[in-house]
Write a structure and sequence with these properties.
The protein has 321 residues and is mainly β. It has helices at residues 3-7, 149-157, 189-192, 200-207, 211-217, and strands at residues 10-11, 35-40, 52-54, 60-67, 72-77, 82-88, 91-95, 102-106, 111-114, 120-124, 130-137, 146-147, 160-162, 168-170, 208-209, 223-227, 232-233, 238-244, 249-253, 259-265, 268-272, 275-279, 284-287, 293-297, 304-310. The chain has two domains: 8-207, Jelly Rolls, CATH 2.60.120.10; 212-310, Sandwich (Jelly Rolls). It is built from five helices and 25 strands. Strand 21 and strand 22 form a beta hairpin. The mean pLDDT is 94.
C-alpha cells in the first residue's frame, strides 16, 4: 500500500471534524456544548450533520467525544459493546435509570468497557476541554442509541424531536416530523425493568482497567486489555491490546481482519509494507487486513498505544468467561 493510499486511512487529531448536533440532547442545558466525532464507520449519530472520516467497514466503529468542563452526555444504552479510553482530562462515568446506581472516575489512559443493557452517561469533571475515544461494536454500532425516557422528554422542551426512524428534527430550524413518521416511543415501565441497576462494585472490577496497571502488565509483550483472555474479559467482535515502549517490536506482523492504532502517550513510528508515518496522541490509523506493519516509539519518554483488532466473534451483548 502506497503512502498516498494509506493517507486516506489516517485521521489526525487536529483534523477531526466535530458535530455539535449529533444527538437528541444537543440543546439540553448541561449537554449542549459537547462535540461528537465519527472517525471510522457509520457511528450512531442521529444527525445528518455528522462527518464520517473513514467509511470503510471494520467490524467495529471508532468515535470520540469532546466536552468542556461540567458538560455531560445524557443517559443512554447500546445493544453492543461501548468501550472508552480517556485521551485528555478527567471523566466521571455513571449509570442506572437515573444515573445514580453507580459511578467511576477515569484519568488519562484509563479504559472502561461499559456493560451492554444498562443506561450510562459521562461527564468531564476536569478543568479543561477533555476528550474520550470510543470503540463501538458492530458495523452498525448496535442499531443506534436507546435513550432513557427523561432524555427524550427534556429534549422536546428544547426543540428537538427524535423520530421513530432514528433521525432528529429541530423545531428551532423550522423542522417537523415528516408525514407518516411518529416520534420515537418512550420505553415502557416493563421495558425499563430489563435495564439492571448495577452498583460500582458490580462494574469497576471487571470492566475498568487503569493506565498505570496496564503499563506494569505490558512488560516484554503487549497486554491483552479486552478479549477472551484479557484483563477485561469480553468477546464483542474486537480485541484491544495495550503496547508500551518495552513491549513494542519492529518485527512486521499482520492480522486477518482490520485493526486500528490509537496512541495514548508519546509519538509512534508506524511502518507498513509500502511506507511509514508518525502518529501522535489523538491520531487514529486504520490498518487493512493482511498488511504487514509494526509500531515503535519514535522519541524518548513515556509511550503507550491502544491497538484495536477485529475478530470473528459477532457483535453482541457483553460476555464474560
Amino acid at each position: 500500500m502506497t503512502p498516498e493510499e494509506m493517507q486516506a486511512r489516517i485521521v489526525r487529531y487536529g483534523e477531526l471534524v466535530p458535530c455539535r448536533t449529533a444527538f437528541i440532547d444537543a440543546h439540553t442545558p448541561g449537554s449542549n456544548q459537547k462535540e461528537n466525532f465519527t472517525i471510522i464507520g457509520g457511528g450512531v449519530s442521529e444527525s445528518a450533520d455528522q462527518h464520517v472520516h473513514i467509511t470503510i467497514p471494520h467490524g467495529f466503529n471508532i468515535g470520540a467525544a469532546g466536552q468542556p468542563p461540567k458538560c455531560r452526555n445524557s443517559l443512554h444504552s447500546h445493544r453492543t459493546a461501548e468501550v472508552f479510553f480517556v485521551l485528555k482530562g478527567r471523566w466521571r462515568f455513571f449509570w442506572g435509570r437515573w444515573g445514580n446506581a453507580g459511578e467511576v472516575v477515569l484519568e488519562e489512559g484509563d479504559i472502561i468497557n461499559i456493560p451492554t443493557g444498562i443506561f450510562r452517561g459521562f461527564e468531564n469533571i476536569g478543568t479543561d476541554y477533555g476528550m474520550i475515544m470510543a470503540v463501538l461494536g458492530g458495523d452498525d454500532a448496535g442499531g443506534g442509541v436507546i435513550w432513557a425516557p427523561q432524555v427524550i422528554e427534556d429534549a422536546k422542551d428544547h426543540g428537538l424531536v427524535l423520530g421513530e426512524n432514528g433521525k432528529l428534527y429541530d423545531s428551532k430550524k423550522g423542522q417537523h416530523l415528516p408525514d407518516g413518521v411518529k416520534p420515537m416511543p418512550l420505553l415502557s415501565e416493563e421495558e425499563l425493568k430489563t435495564f439492571p441497576e448495577l452498583e460500582a462494585a458490580d462494574v469497576v472490577p471487571g470492566y475498568v482497567a487503569r493506565y498505570w496497571d496496564l503499563m506494569s502488565l505490558a512488560g516484554k509483550r503487549p497486554a491483552k486489555v479486552l478479549g477472551e483472555t484479557g484483563v477485561l474479559k469480553d468477546k464483542p467482535g474486537f480485541e484491544i491490546d495495550f503496547i508500551t515502549r518495552d513491549s513494542a517490536s519492529e518485527e512486521m506482523h499482520q492480522h486477518p481482519y482490520p485493526s486500528v492504532l490509537m496512541p495514548v502517550t508519546g509519538h509512534w513510528k508506524i511502518t507498513w509494507e509500502g511506507g511509514e508515518t508518525v502518529l501522535a496522541p489523538g491520531d487514529t490509523m486504520s490498518i487493512p487486513e493482511n498488511l504487514g506493519h509494526s509500531a515503535v516509539p519514535s522519541m524518548t519518554g513515556e509511550a503507550a498505544l491502544y491497538h484495536v483488532i477485529a475478530t470473528a466473534d459477532p457483535a453482541g451483548p457483553t460476555w464474560q468467561g
